[in-house]
Amino acid sequence: MSKYDLFRRRIAPIAFGIAIVFIARDMCNKHERTHATFVLTYGAAEPTVKTVDAELWMNGEQVSMFHRAALQGRIGSTHFTGSLPDTDGELRIDVELFSGDHRHAVHRVHVDEGATVTVPLELDLK
């Protein structure tokens, strides 16, 4: 039996089986993610907000990104959903005001399955 036949008949099927196991494991773990909704509130500063960018970081990796721009002079309701690999993270928010100023805020967040996390930004925008 040549090396090629050994590979084709014995090693290749084992390697293929192991690959299938890893793919199935990855697909089964998708349901273990945490789903949450994030709501950004601006309070009295809402009329001054032009754009908002938010990034959610967990375990040192960016897991979600959000951008919204004001239409017709108002930013309006700002919320986004995510399917997250962990329950604790950091929400990094950049806000551009109509005055041209930029504000940066970082908020630590903890999420539970199906939770709505409200992030008040009024104090960060003053």
What would you say this structure looks like, in words?
Strand 5 (88-97) and strand 6 (102-110) form a beta hairpin. The protein has two domains: 1-32; 33-125, Immunoglobulin-like, CATH 2.60.40. The protein is α+β, with helices and mostly antiparallel strands. The relative contact order is 0.22. The mean pLDDT is 88. The strands form two sheets. It has a four-stranded antiparallel beta sheet, with no helix packed on it. Strands 4-1-7 form a three-stranded mixed beta sheet, with no helix packed on it. Helices cover 21% and strands 47% of the residues.
Blueprint of the fold:
Elements: H1 3-28, E1 34-41, E2 49-58, E3 61-69, E4 78-84, E5 88-97, E6 102-110, E7 115-120
Parallel strand pairs: 1-7
Antiparallel strand pairs: 1-4, 2-3, 2-5, 5-6
What is the makeup of the main sheet? Answer: 4 strands, antiparallel
Q: Which CATH first-tier class of the largest domain would you pick?
A: Mainly Beta
Q: Alpha-carbon distance between the termini?
A: 78 Å
The portion of residues assigned to helices is: 10-25%
Estimate nothing, just give the exact number of structural domains.
Answer: 2
Low-confidence stretches: none
